[in-house]
Automatic annotation (TrEMBL):
Residues 113-316 form the ATP-grasp domain. It comes from Oceanispirochaeta crateris. The keyword Nucleotide-binding applies. The keyword rRNA-binding does not apply. Signal peptide: none annotated. InterPro entries: ATP-grasp, ATP_grasp_subdomain_1, Dala_Dala_lig_C, PreATP-grasp_dom_sf. PROSITE patterns: ATP_GRASP (PS50975). This is ATP-grasp domain-containing protein. Pfam families: Dala_Dala_lig_C. Belongs to the D-alanine--D-alanine ligase family. GO terms for biological process: cell wall organization. Keywords: ATP-binding, Cell wall biogenesis/degradation, Ligase, Nucleotide-binding.
Amino acid sequence: MKIGLTYDSRAEYLKEGYSMEETAEFDKESTIEGIELAIRNIGYETERIGNSNSLMRHLLTGRRWDLVFNISEGLYGEGRESLVPALLDSFKIPYVFSGPVTLGISLNKAFAKQIIRDSHLNTPPFSVVTKRADIPLVKLDYPLFVKPISEGTGKGIDARSKINNATELEDVCSSLLPKFNQAVLVEEYLPGREFTVGVLKTGDDAYVPGAMEIVYKNSSNNIYSYENKENYEEIVDYTSVEGDLLKECEELALKVWKALNCFDGGRVDMKIDKSGKMSFIEVNPLAGLNPETSDLPILCRLNNMDYQKIIEEILDSAIKRNFTHD
């Protein structure tokens, strides 16, 4: 089987003049090499395709693959993560991870929360601010938490994201709206412990390989921000979750995974709310896969699953979805 690799090389974007923050979600060479090696260890041939522009050029010249391993995040717009799977769908080429609808809905955190809320799963009350005139219309209980509605890797999140009064809400929303050129998600703040939970495989086969708690060191602002994620080794401790707490994480993560029709592998982020219940924050169906520094490989490693096994499980799920017709 020939497996193509779609990705966004961070080094290539940096050479073109994009900033470190703009390219925060993009892939290091070690990520691409790690996936290649793991796929070849299984016995499959690999071919690098690159980003969505490169994929389009290849498709128009007639290049094809049996399957594409897609980790391309895209650069602009709420459909940026959906572009590669939508192109592959149009050429009837199977691929790894979720389809364009799930990736688009999951990237817009308010859309995802609406589905989760309508699935009767716990998530904090929220509002969406699309312009400054919306800010006084927010009727939620303080403290609040605000972030750009469609960013990842903690972009737009810092110590000011926790909001204690109307003045802070006005100041922070007025700053985020023009900076990120997108709506702002405003949620009631979740004061409890924070977890990220891995999910592998699809549908009834989906399972949780492990979960980890995000424990902030003394110097941290207790917010999983872009800066804290970039410097996690100095700022954050990750600890494996066990016992009844793991069961709570598993139950919510798997229900979220199915409600949003996620495929093959990813992560679900959650915190404990003020009443002590586990509460959904967001889902990442296109989770980072750097062997050393990405959350999904880290939490799997904490739970005795190595990187090779993660890639095998993801590929096994995609091959079963696309090539098995029971």
